[in-house]
Amino acid sequence: MSLRAALLLALAACAPDAAAAEALRAGEKPVPGSTEAELWYGMDQAEKDIQASPYVVRDPALNAYTRRVLCDVVGDYCPDMRLYIIDVPVFNASMAPNGAVLVFTGALLRMQDESELALVLGHEFAHFRQRHSLQGWEKAKRTSAFLATFGVLTWAGGVGLAGGIAQMVGLANVMQFSRENERESDDIGFRLVTARGYDPQAGARVWERMLREETADPRRRHDPVFASHPKTSERLDDMRAAAARVPPGDYARHQARYAAAVRPHLAAWLDAELGKRTFATSIRMIDDLRLASAPELLATYEFYLAEAHRRRNRDDDRARADALYASAVGRPEAPAGAWREYGLVLKRRGQAAEAAAHLQRYLQLAPEAKDRLFIENDIRELEKRP
Predict the structure, then answer these.
(1) Cα–Cα separations (whole angstroms), residue 362 to 127, 264, 321, 332
(2) What is the pLDDT of residue 228?
(3) Coil, strand, or helix at residue 19?
(4) d(C-alpha 248, C-alpha 251), whole Å
(5) Residue 136, pLDDT above cutoff 80
């Protein structure tokens, strides 16, 4: 049976008990023939497509780390979960009714420590455990948007998704969890992660940054991932209130552990972020990362923040980019690109010897650089100048 056929079969089914469904127990499966069973079947078919998707990040270390955090949060439910890290530069994480967990790289980029990742995963797990999808499913069946959901999703920045990923995320969007569902999931997720010793301020930090990112460009439409959630300002208020009720204690953020897990992927994720060309929001987001950065990542964030300013090229962007390039090359572990860009800044300023030295350092760090012949030509010309 095709996925669309399975979904239409579920559409025809009746589930008067959906709203009153009890929380799902670890290891529990839907009753055969029920609406929930049909919903799971449709998601199982979509998951098969996801397993072969080129969007899935296969890195064993990153998957193992993220799954360990997931399992720490969900406890006995861990065997019921299958994790997929999706290489798409938007903030999103979701858990399908059948236990498939999707975490987008745009979310991993924006998080600053393990406690924040745990909180987001805890929220999505609460939707799964409380069977919120059943309630949303019944509501979705009464809308004309239902049949249009399972096609291709086009995200802000021109990122298109198709197949199983689009179907799973599309399902989450069209369901439009109620405000009560969202608040319950926030509450359950918060209690789960704080009970495991994670920092209760994690949620407030995440949503403070998301609010700044959303308001950085008033012309920006909200990404589809936010359409089914309460306003970010409301969520921030709720997280602050919940954190204020937690007694003082020695709570963990595990910043270094998180930084080590994501560090091999940061350059690729930041390149993808800039590829969206949503520079106002990207600048806000990368600057937030820079301000809270571990020392060993600071040069990377400065370089990509400089790149965002340079590519936008408005008002004083050029001057800001130049200053950030200069700062980046003065730090340990500066990206190769920072040496190239600051070398070109020095060339523009007429500082020939310094420019040549920076460009030579770039080629030392990036011996296989695609622009090597051009840079070598620049160096020769600079070395001829008095």
Answers:
(1) 48, 20, 18, 14
(2) 45
(3) coil
(4) 8
(5) no
First to last CA, the chain: 76
CATH fold for domain 265-384? 1.25.40
Question: Cα 107 to chain center, whole Å?
Answer: 1
- Greatest pairwise CA separation for the chain in angstroms: 85
Distance of CA 334 to the CA centre of its chain: 24
Between 142 and 331, whose confidence is greater? 331
Instruction: Say what the pLDDT of residue 139 is.
Output: 65
Please check whether residue 113 is in contact with residue 93, taking contact to mean a CB–CB distance below 8 angstroms.
no
Q: What letter does residue 25 receive in the DSSP assignment?
A: P
- Contact in structure between 216 and 280 (CB atoms under 8 Å): yes
Residue 57 DSSP symbol: -
Strand 153-155 and strand 159-161: the pairing is antiparallel
Q: Give the pLDDT of residue 180.
A: 84
Residues in contact with 319: Cβ distance below 8 Å, sequence separation at least 6, in sequence order: none
Residue type (1 letter), 64 = A
Q: Is the pLDDT of residue 364 over 80?
A: yes
Q: Residue 163: what pLDDT?
A: 65
Instruction: List the structure tokens of 213.
Output: 């990112």
Q: What is the pLDDT of residues 172-208, one digit of tens each?
A: 554 557 778 888 999 999 999 999 999 999 999 999 9
Task: Give the strand pairing for 82-86 and 100-104.
Answer: parallel
Q: Which two tokens stand for residue 110?
A: 């924006």
Residue intervals of the chain classified under CATH 1.25.40.10 are 265-384
Give me the chain's average pLDDT, please. Answer: 86
Contact 119, 252 (CB under 8 A): no
SS3 84: strand
Which one-letter amino acid corresponds to residue 322? D
- In whole angstroms, give the CA distance from residue 173 to residue 186: 17
